[in-house]
Structure formats: structure tokens, C-alpha cells
Design brief:
The protein has helices spanning 2-17, 26-32, 165-174; strands at residues 24-25, 35-48, 51-63, 70-76, 90-97, 103-105, 112-114, 116-118, 123-127, 136-137, 144-149, 158-164. By secondary structure, the chain is an alpha+beta fold.
């Protein structure tokens, strides 16, 4: 009997480990989001195996409103969702408000955008190769520029989409949603 259960587990495990995330339309992600904001992470609390809550400071609200400077975001690590835990970088987050007053990702695997800093022009940005907006379709063209990433090792050169924070701010300022 135990052998049968082990065989069943080994047969089903690869399907869950290699699950692929689906694509999301930009307008759906925005409309599902009660709050879109640039945030910095103040504290990360692990709740249970693979889940936690991050306390974030709101630096700039792009969509929605919030009465306090801080919000709590619940997250769960899975094959397509990462934790919100990098305290050294700002993020753009797309959030839905839960009944308990906390927030969570508006779309699994697509709601926590880690920001990098371009030290040449001092602008914050994120790339499609760095996180999940690779799986977001119909992103308005005014939000990104295509950048060619040179070939490295066994990888060919490729085009990626780079979104600058100032373009996101401008987009949400002119397109009140």
C-alpha cells in the first residue's frame, strides 16, 4: 500500500513543480487591483511553511487610496508566486484588499515588481526578464522601451521590455482608472 502511494506521489509531483503560469491582460491586472503603489519593505513575517506577510511603506500611490502610510501584504510562495521579502529594493505592487484588511496579489506571479536603479540616469526600472511582467500581455507601448540584451554563454541576444517607474507614474496620472 505504501509503495502505491509513493508511486502516485512521484507521478503527480512533476506536474505541480513544472506548472506554467498563464498570461494576464494589462487592463485586467489594473482593474483587479484596488491599490497599485511604489513601496519599500519594512518588515517580513513568516506565517507558516511557504507563506508570510510583509509590512510595506507606501512611497507613491499610482491607483487607489489608503489612509495609512503602511499596509500588510499576505503572500504565499508557489511555482508561480514569489514572496515579497527583498528589503533592499523598492517594488511596484498590484494589490487586492482582503476582508481582513490586509492586501494580497491581484494576479498570482505578476503583482510584485522589483525595481532596479539605473545609475547612469538615476531612474528606477524593471525588466521583463527579471520578473513576471513577461506574462502580462497588451502592456501599453508608452510604458516600456525594448532593450537588446547581448548574448551571454549559451544564450542568444534577445529583446526585453524595460518599464521605468516615472513612465508608470505618468501613465496612472493621465489615465485615472
Amino acid at each position: 500500500m505504501k509503495l502505491k502511494h509513493i508511486f502516485l506521489l512521484l507521478t503527480l509531483l512533476p506536474f505541480s513543480v513544472h506548472a506554467k503560469q498563464g498570461f494576464t491582460i494589462w487592463s485586467d491586472l489594473v482593474s483587479r487591483s484596488d491599490l497599485i503603489a511604489q513601496v519599500s519593505i519594512e518588515e517580513v513575517m513568516k506565517n507558516s511553511e511557504g507563506s508570510g506577510t510583509s509590512k510595506v511603506k507606501i512611497k507613491k500611490i499610482l491607483k487607489g487610496d489608503n489612509k495609512t502610510d503602511f499596509v500588510l501584504i499576505d503572500w504565499k510562495i508557489s511555482t508561480i508566486q514569489s514572496a515579497l521579502f527583498n528589503i533592499y529594493k523598492d517594488h511596484v505592487v498590484f494589490l487586492q484588499k482582503n476582508e481582513n484588511g490586509k492586501y494580497s496579489a491581484a494576479a498570482l506571479g505578476k503583482s510584485f515588481w522589483e525595481l532596479e536603479k539605473n545609475y547612469t540616469n538615476r531612474k528606477l526600472y524593471t525588466d521583463s526578464s527579471m520578473f513576471s511582467f513577461y506574462y502580462i500581455e497588451e502592456i501599453p507601448e508608452q510604458l516600456y522601451e525594448e532593450i537588446e540584451v547581448p548574448a551571454t554563454g549559451n544564450r542568444n541576444s534577445r529583446l526585453i521590455k524595460r518599464i521605468y517607474l516615472n513612465k508608470l507614474i505618468e501613465y496612472f496620472t493621465t489615465n485615472k482608472t
